[in-house]
Write a structure and sequence with these properties.
Blueprint lengths: L5 H9 L2 H7 L3 E3 L10 E8 L2 E2 L4 E2 L2 E8 L2 H15 L5 E2 L3 E2 L1 E12 L4 E13 L1
Parallel strand pairs: 1-2
Antiparallel strand pairs: 2-5, 3-4, 4-9, 5-9, 6-7, 8-9
Length: 127
């Protein structure tokens, strides 16, 4: 997990009313706690490509948008996309000059009885 990016991402998501109107404070990094109410948002780093010759890193982050209905999960995914798409200059512990929306997958989890729209972004930043 990239602890440099996490505070900035969390700051953007928790200050975006499009996201918080849906999930309230149920925004988590790395794992979902037990016995939570849905909808909820989970985000984590999937992979990272470092380009030392350019002093740039390009980690892929997934934003898992969980809800009890497909419509609610998609609405949360749409809100996350709107909050993160094409933003620049996230200020926390690091400057993120660009975000790139990479797409999403619609998933139904039989064990959890939940819909998940797994929404991916590349967050480009200078190291």
């Amino acid at each position: 997990m990239n602890t440099l990016l996490e505070p900035g991402i969390l700051n953007v998501l928790t200050n975006d009313t499009g996201v918080t109107d849906i999930v309230g404070t149920r925004i988590y990094s790395s794992f979902l706690p037990d016995d939570i109410t849905y909808p909820a948002l989970l985000f984590f780093e999937v992979s990272s490509i470092e380009m030392p010759e350019a002093s740039v890193a390009r980690p892929r982050w997934q934003f898992s948008c969980y809800a009890e209905t497909e419509t609610a999960a998609k609405q949360l995914s749409d809100a996350v996309i709107a909050a993160l798409k094409n933003i620049s200059g996230i200020k926390a512990t690091i400057d993120i000059p660009k975000t790139v929306y990479e797409g999403r997958n619609r998933i139904y989890d039989d064990e959890m009885n939940l819909w998940n729209f797994a929404t991916d972004f590349i967050l480009i930043y200078r190291e």
